[in-house]
Amino acid sequence: MLRNITLSADDRLIQAAREKAQGQQSTLNEEFRRWLQSYVAEPDAASRVDALLASLSHVNAGRKFSRDEMNAR
After folding, report:
1. Long-range contacts: 59-67, Cβ < 8 Å, 24+?
2. What are the CA-CA distances from residue 12 to residues 9, 18, 21, 54, 66 (Å)?
């Protein structure tokens, strides 16, 4: 069952989004539904950080860096 919701945004932003969707042979409504599905399916930020750290666990700098080295820009 589809339900209606009301969103508020700047007129120019809505128009630009509609034009972009139209350029992709879509509608703003379809694009919002697609975004909403990906938003709900997306893991939380902590899970993403944990996954990133796990994927980088093989990286070894070979030594410890000093506080100054880590903060150098």
Report:
1. none
2. 8, 10, 14, 42, 49
Task: Average pLDDT across each block of 10 residues of the chain; the chain has 73 residues. List them in order.
Answer: 92 96 96 90 81 88 90 87
CB-count burial class (<10 Å; 0-12, 13-18, 19+) for 43: exposed
* Rounded distance between C-alpha atoms, residue 41 and residue 38, angstroms: 5
How far is Cα of residue 65 from the mean position of the Cα atoms in its chain? 31
Residue 44 has which token pair? 């939380």
- Provide the residue type at 11 as one letter: D
CA distance 21 to 26: 5
Please give the Cα distance from 64 to 70 (Å, whole number).
Answer: 10
